[in-house]
Design a protein that fits this description.
It contains 8 helices and 14 strands. With 282 residues, the protein is of the alpha+beta class. Helix 1 packs across helix 2.
Amino acid sequence: MENNKIRLVLVSLFSMEKSFYFTTEDDSLVKDDLVICETTRGIELGKIISSPIEKESSENVTYPVILRKGNQDDYLIHKDNLIKGEEATKITQQYADKLKLEMKVISSEYMFDRTKIIIYFSSESRVDFRDLLKDLAGELHCRIELRQIGSRDKAKMVGGIGVCGLKLCCATFLNEFDGISITMAKNQMLALNIPKLSGQCGKLMCCLKYENDTYTDIQKDLPRIGSKVKYNDQIYKITSINVITKILRLENYDGVVNVDYNDIKDNILPRETPLSGSKGDN
């Protein structure tokens, strides 16, 4: 390999279920190999999920390092760490309850070499866990990091099934949480029923963002709700729009009709135009 080239492989870390590029000088590593990696969190086990690539090295970009190729014994250590992590979660909750701390311990994660454990918990307020750390240090005998997480991170860790019948997006492929607002629901003409628009985390569902840009683009060519239109020699108000089919719901004092936008797009009127119908005629 040339001096200005680095060898990269994409590794899925078992502990995080996320993928990152790592650098290695081991030419024997191939896809599906287990590897021991050094990350900012500590030593972790992962699996190579892509063929190695070569890239120009840069002083401005650094990559974490693969320490060595893994084996079946390493995988068994990882499985044992998962069991010990569950035990640590129970122990932490017991001590927290004893200290009357208002916190819910979600999960505990040992680094591969068990020199460090990350304990995740949720709470409605800040928690003074100094006494808890003292108790845990005597019980777990490793470096301990207590990390408070929000409701979305909690849902990601716990997992579950969404209203669509599939596993939660946050627990499968979402690596970061984008800002979600009720404006996105309005933009997609959804009923503003907050319980139905909320996910298991209690926040607005992440999937509200998936089609929002498409709806925004489509609506650029459509009239606004409340616009007046002349149809069959009567004046109607547009009260709703199916953005996908471009079917408009028109209402006046005499009734309601559904029409295709292409049939009335040239007949949009100023909003101050009075409606047609019996009431308007009086």
